[in-house]
């Protein structure tokens, strides 16, 4: 075998579970001269390999679970040996050389589980020993000289031997911390030496014939003793000496004859575990309840009844395990159920009749064992909240209690609505100018401090607030920051320590560059360089550069720039700097101690797919069952490898053959088929052809590949012996300063989580060897792993068809994945299985379903309706906004140009037109700002720097978007040239802001049609409805369909009835109709609007109250009398919710009270509540998922409203677009035909 030169740098190897029997020990180990630790556990060794004699630097050697009978050989030459572990072998006393104990560095010796009959000769010479384990042997005596020399011992295990006594010299072990003497016939040993061991922390004397007579009367000197095991002895009570151990944490007195306990046990205030099982106890003392640190209490197999357990046991707040099986309990104290930390409760094999109801309230309880209680009747469980409809509704819990809890409210109870509160936003706007006086400032600070203190004291009661007190979320609170996760590209410690870090772009991903390669750049690659420094204030600062090679591909350059920005976002750095080869800045050159070196070529591959002809190695696999999955064993590619009891997979690259033996199991056939299909999909990009023919009908090419050219059909024979799965070995390659190590991360079975993206691993599968490269692994570790894999491959004799395969993270082969539990397992599909049959296999479907719960936000359904703004607040806001408004100029689109709007038309809008309003706002500076700016040049103030220009673009609901384009490319540019600070606000019909509406002083008229467009023939009758939605600021006079059914006694209307003519001089009658239930303010306003907007010399204006209408013109114009609504109480309850999945999860949000018809989105579902009915409105483009979830949300809302407003029960109705009923449309001001998208 050719030496790669890498073995001398290997510092440690774990060869556990290799087969080195029959002189198979690898000769290459002799070249590992730098080896410091070596594990040869479970390697079937019978003798010490002579190759170990070359490892002169070896410090730790483990030879556990082998077949060694003697230790003669090369061990005595290992002068640096510190630790030797040969437990679980067949070593005899005569097989241990005395020279072994002359090793001056030997500190740990484990000879347990062997065949020693006496202490090895010369052991007393090992004066440096700290740890000595001679347990599980046949030693009868300890020589007195042993403890005379080994005075530095810290750990001594002599358990499971034949010792009858210990030498008096045991008292010399003043440093001993752990003494284990279990299972020895120490009946005559009086433990007189024990008080001298003042450093002792652990004492185990299980099954050592202890009685009250052969125990010391006091152990006060053992102040450090915390772990005592006196189980399986003949103690009739707890020895008095134990009560003097104030540091005791663990005490095991099981399997004795103890019948009573002393009240003095409350001295063990540090006790955490107490085991009194299998004794004769009839009761536990009340002093037990004072052990506040007790976590585990075992009293199994005693004679305890209900009276025997103290009622104050609930005081054990730290108790996690209580086991009282096989007693006489008919009931347990309710106090036991008050142990809130209880995780395991074992009451099996008692005489239980029932349990306290509080047992269901143990939220942390993981295990409750009650078998062996035939008369037990469990108390009824508390009523659980009903779950949602499971997977049918995407596993979202739509129960009212659950959704209220998620929304931050208490459980649903019968509540009354709280008093209406004033709008805090309006109050802030109203008071935004005036600054508080100094006294007001002080009082505000005091109130704020009191509020914070109250919030701190009552923080735990936040969840107990009534759901009527929930405040609706502001629009910006519902926005979520996009989830940016850079962990796939950069480590957590990136940029946290001063220094230089470099990455190279490899397959679109930044890969770290080792420090020795910093400053060396390949011309075909791109790099990211991070310089981390510490500023004077102690804060970190970062300089990020990315370097583009002159011959780098496009994908590398783009990814270098992109990931440099990602790194900037991750660290919060200021900027990134770009450098190209040959054009680097001096700052970049200064990052490296020497000038950068350019290397021709490229070190990393391009991320783009390259067109080449891949090379496939023909391989034959024998398929074995391995639980729910399968195992593929590589065999020689020849016909003789076939066996009729198995399924074989012949992989030639673009053709995959499946050969089914006549005696093969059907499950193996289906799993092998699925496995081959997965190879084709994942590795061959569906370019491979699968051929599966029954035996005897194989294609000729199949036999040619297997080397069978004869005309006589090949008859396979049964030749494969009993197969058993062998554990594979996974090595982690670790690289340090001048050394390599190969530890094994963990025991079998392996899982996908064992592979960390920062590391490189070598998987030895007995035949094949795989090298797995993590995405974030370094270049040097990869290079070392490739050579080490070849060394491991050659160390063991393998058949010719064995291979070494290199794998990159994310491109693993299916064969490699089979060695890891649960990684893309191939399970044959069985459509006959039910959930019940799957559950019987042990699968926890409930926990799986809980993990699959989908995120949903229904909190808007439980927030109270936004209260209406009072008239005084609306007036205050309007006065403030209009006071700030210095000037407003109006324009309207005529043709392709905007012209000034006549002053008499201000406030009149047509649904087919577009309007522009240029507003100039001047904010009065505050007093402090004026004093601070007193030194500023007055010319600056005269220039109007404090003025703000706002352009409102208003678009009617039937106006085309051409108006917006005309404004954007024309008028807006002119405005920006004239105005220094210009803000553009685009608004649509009936979606105007409160500030914009306030400028029209409630004189806001919306008409159908287009301005200055005269209809042919007679002018139509026009009916206008006046309505305010949630605020006096939202007052509009909107044209509606001219029918009597549109009237409502709670509103006021204007009816325009044209008489003659077809121009501005045409005569008409204008009626101002005042409903009998309308408020006086609306009546006054309708008369004023009729006078200002409709009256002229050719118009006859009449004010009518409901019931005084003339028949000849009024009712005739409306098409005759028809029934109409006489109240509008629904306006006090109307709410509109939007259901959508646009955030990536299902969410419900509420529209403001000033909603309109255009708020009904085609691709969403709306929920409308009018106080009596709840409508589910389906948009034309909504998905089936949204329909299901919105339906359940509406049901939850109805349940919630039953508790909030029990006197107003609601019913659920479904409505479709263009199919809305009058009960639905009356909630919208100015309902008409739906807006049609432009063709």
From TrEMBL:
Q: Does the keyword Cytoplasm apply?
A: no
- According to the entry, every stretch annotated as the Gelsolin-like domain falls at 507-589, 632-703, 743-816, 1149-1202
Cross-referenced PROSITE patterns, in alphabetical order?
LRR
Task: Read off the Gene3D superfamilies from this record.
Answer: Ribonuclease Inhibitor (3.80.10.10), Severin (3.40.20.10)
Q: Which UniProt keywords apply?
A: Leucine-rich repeat, Repeat
The answer to whether UniProt assigns keyword rRNA-binding to this entry is no
| Top-rank taxon | Eukaryota
One Pfam short name: Gelsolin
* SMART domains noted in UniProt: GEL (SM00262), LRR_BAC (SM00364), LRR_SD22 (SM00365), LRR_TYP (SM00369)
The residues covered by the Disease resistance R13L4/SHOC-2-like LRR domain are 242-371
**InterPro entries, sorted:** ADF-H/Gelsolin-like_dom_sf, Gelsolin-like_dom, Leu-rich_rpt, Leu-rich_rpt_typical-subtyp, LRR_dom_sf, LRR_R13L4/SHOC2-like, Villin/Gelsolin
GO molecular function per UniProt? actin filament binding; phosphatidylinositol-4,5-bisphosphate binding
> Record's Gene Ontology CC terms?
actin cytoskeleton; cytoplasm; nucleus
Q: Where is this region: Disordered?
A: 411-442
Question: Tell me, which GO biological process terms does this entry list?
Answer: actin filament severing; actin polymerization or depolymerization; barbed-end actin filament capping; myofibril assembly
PANTHER family with a match to the protein in the record? PROTEIN FLIGHTLESS-1 HOMOLOG, VILLIN
For this entry, the protein name equals Protein flightless-1
């Amino acid at each position: 075998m050719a030496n790669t030169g890498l073995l001398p740098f290997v510092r440690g190897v774990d060869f556990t579970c290799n087969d080195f029997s029959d002189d198979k020990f690898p000769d290459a180990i002799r070249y590992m001269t730098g080896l410091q630790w070596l594990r040869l556990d479970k390697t079937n060794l019978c003798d010490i390999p002579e190759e170990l004699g070359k490892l002169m630097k070896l410090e730790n050697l483990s030879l556990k679970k082998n077949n060694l009978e003697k230790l003669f050989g090369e061990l005595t030459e290992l002068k640096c040996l510190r630790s030797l572990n040969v437990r679980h072998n067949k070593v005899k006393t005569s097989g241990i050389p005395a020279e072994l104990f002359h090793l001056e560095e030997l500190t740990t010796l484990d000879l347990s589980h062997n065949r020693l009959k006496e202490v090895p000769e010369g052991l007393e010479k090992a004066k440096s020993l700290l740890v000595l384990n001679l347990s599980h042997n046949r030693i009868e005596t300890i020589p007195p000289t042993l403890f005379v020399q080994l005075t530095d011992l810290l750990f001594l295990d002599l358990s499971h031997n034949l010792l009858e006594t210990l030498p008096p010299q045991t008292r010399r072990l003043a440093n001993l911390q752990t003494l284990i003497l279990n299972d020895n016939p120490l009946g005559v040993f009086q433990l007189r030496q024990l008080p001298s061991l003042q450093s002792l922390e652990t004492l185990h004397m299980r099954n050592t014939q202890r009685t009250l007579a052969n125990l010391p009367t006091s152990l006060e000197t053992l102040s450090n003793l915390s772990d005592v095991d006196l189980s399986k002895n003949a103690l009739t009570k707890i020895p008095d000496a134990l009560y003097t151990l104030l540091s005791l944490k663990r005490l095991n007195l099981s399997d004795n004859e103890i019948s009573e306990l002393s009240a003095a046990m409350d001295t063990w205030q540090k006790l955490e575990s107490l085991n009194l099982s299998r004794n004769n106890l009839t009761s536990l003392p009340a002093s037990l309840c004072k052990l506040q640190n007790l976590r585990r209490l075992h009293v199994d197999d005693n004679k305890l009844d209900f009276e025997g357990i103290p009622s104050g046991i609930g005081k054990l707040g730290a108790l996690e395990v209580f086991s009282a099986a096989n007693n006489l309990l008919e009931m347990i104290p309710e106090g036991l159920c008050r142990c809130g930390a209880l995780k395991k409760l074992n009451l099996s094999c008692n005489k239980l009749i029932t349990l306290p109801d509080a047992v269901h309230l143990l939220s942390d309880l993981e295990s409750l064992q009650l078998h062996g209680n035939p008369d037990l009747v469990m108390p009824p469980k508390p009523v659980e909240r009903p779950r949602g409809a499971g997977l049918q509704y995407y596993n979202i819990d739509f129960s009212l209690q659950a959704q209220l809890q998620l929304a931050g409210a208490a459980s649903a109870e019968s509540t009354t609505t709280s008093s209406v509160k004033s709008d805090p936003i309006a109050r802030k706007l109203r008071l935004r100018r005036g600054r508080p006086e100094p006294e007001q400032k002080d009082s505000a600070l005091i109130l704020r401090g009191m509020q914070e203190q109250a919030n701190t004291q009552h923080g735990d009661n936040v969840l107990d607030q009534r759901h009527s007190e929930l405040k609706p979320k502001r629009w910006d609170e519902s926005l979520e920051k996009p989830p940016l996760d850079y962990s796939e590209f950069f480590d957590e410690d990136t940029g946290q320590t001063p220094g230089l870090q470099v990455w190279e772009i490899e397959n679109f991903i930044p890969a770290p560059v080792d420090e020795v390669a910093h400053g060396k750049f390949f011309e075909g690659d791109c790099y990211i360089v991070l310089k981390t420094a510490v500023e004077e204030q102690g804060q970190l600062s970062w300089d990020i550069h990315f370097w583009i090679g002159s011959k780098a591909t496009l994908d590398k350059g783009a990814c270098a720039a992109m990931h440099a920005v990602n790194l900037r976002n991750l660290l919060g750095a200021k900027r990134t700097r770009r450098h190209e080869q040959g054009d680097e800045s001096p700052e970049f050159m200064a990052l490296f101690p020497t000038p950068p070196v350019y290397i021709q070529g490229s070190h990393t591959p391009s991320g783009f797919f390259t067109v080449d002809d891949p090379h496939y190695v023909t391989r034959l696999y024998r398929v074995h069952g391995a639980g729910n999955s399968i195992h593929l064993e590589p065999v020689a590619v020849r016909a003789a490898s076939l066996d009729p009891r198995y399924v074989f997979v012949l992989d030639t690259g673009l053709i995959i053959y499946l050969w089914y033996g006549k005696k093969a199991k059907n499950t193996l056939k289906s799993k092998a088929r699925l496995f081959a299909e997965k190879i084709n999909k994942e590795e061959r990009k569906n370019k491979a052809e699968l051929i599966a023919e029954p035996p005897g009908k194989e294609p000729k090419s199949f036999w040619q590949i297997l080397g069978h050219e004869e005309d006589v059909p090949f008859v396979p024979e049964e030749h494969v012996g009993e197969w058993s799965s062998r554990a594979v070995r996974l090595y982690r390659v670790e690289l340090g300063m001048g050394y390599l190590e190969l530890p094994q991360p963990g025991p079998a079975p392996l899982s996908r989580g064992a592979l960390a993206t920062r590391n490189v691993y070598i998987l030895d599968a007995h035949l094949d060897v795989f090298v797995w490269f993590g995405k974030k692994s370094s270049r040097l570790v990869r290079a070392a792993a490739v050579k080490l894999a070849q060394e491991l491959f050659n160390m063991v004799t393998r058949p010719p068809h064995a291979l070494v395969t290199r794998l990159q993270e994310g491109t693993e082969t299916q064969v490699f994945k089979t060695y890891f539990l649960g990684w893309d397992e191939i399970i044959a599909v069985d459509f006959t299985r039910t959930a019940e049959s799957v559950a019987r296999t042990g699968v926890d479907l409930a926990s799986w379903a809980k993990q699959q719960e989908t995120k949903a936000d229904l909190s808007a359904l439980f927030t109270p309706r936004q209260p209406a703004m009072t008239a005084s607040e609306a007036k205050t806001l309007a006065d403030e906004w209009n006071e700030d408004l210095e000037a407003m100029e109006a324009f309207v689109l005529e043709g392709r140009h905007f012209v000034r709007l006549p002053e008499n038309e201000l406030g009149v809008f047509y649904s087919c037109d577009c309007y522009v309003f240029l507003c100039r706002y001047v904010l009065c500076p505050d007093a402090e700002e004026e004093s601070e700016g007193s030194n500023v040049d007055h010319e600056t103030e005269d220039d109007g720097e404090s003025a703000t220009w706002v352009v409102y673009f208003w678009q009617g609901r039937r106006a085309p978007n051409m108006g917006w384009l005309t404004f954007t490319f024309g008028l807006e540019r002119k405005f920006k040239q004239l105005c220094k600070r210009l803000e553009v606000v685009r608004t649509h019909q009936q979606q105007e802001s409160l500030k914009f509406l306030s400028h029209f002083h409630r004189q806001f008229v919306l008409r159908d049609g287009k301005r200055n467009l005269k209809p042919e023939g007679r002018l139509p009758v026009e009916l206008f409805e006046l309505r305010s939605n949630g605020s006096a600021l939202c007052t509009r006079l909107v044209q509606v369909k001219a029918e009597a059914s549109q009237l409502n006694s709670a509103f006021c209307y204007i009816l325009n009835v044209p008489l003659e003519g077809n121009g501005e001089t045409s005569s008409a009658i204008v009626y101002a109709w005042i409903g009998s239930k309308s408020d006086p303010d609306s009546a006054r306003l309708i008369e004023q609007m009729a006078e200002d907007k409709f009256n002229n010399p050719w118009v006859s204006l009449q004010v009518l109250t409901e019931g005084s209408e003339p028949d000849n013109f009024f009712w005739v114009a409306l098409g005759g009398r028809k029934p109409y609504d006489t109240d509008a109480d629904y306006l006090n309850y109307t709410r509109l919710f939007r259901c959508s999945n646009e955030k990536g999860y299902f969410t419900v949000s509420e529209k403001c009270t000033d909603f309109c018809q255009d708020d009904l989105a085609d691709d969403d579902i709306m929920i409308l509540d009018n106080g009596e009915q709840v409508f589910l409105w389906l948009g034309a483009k909504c998905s089936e998922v949204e329909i299901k979830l919105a339906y359940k949300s509406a049901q939850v809302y109805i349940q919630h409203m039953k508790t909030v407003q029990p006197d107003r029960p609601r019913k659920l109705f479904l409505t479709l677009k263009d199919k809305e009923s009058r009960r639905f449309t009356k909630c919208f001001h100015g309902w008409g035909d739906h807006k049609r998208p432009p063709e």
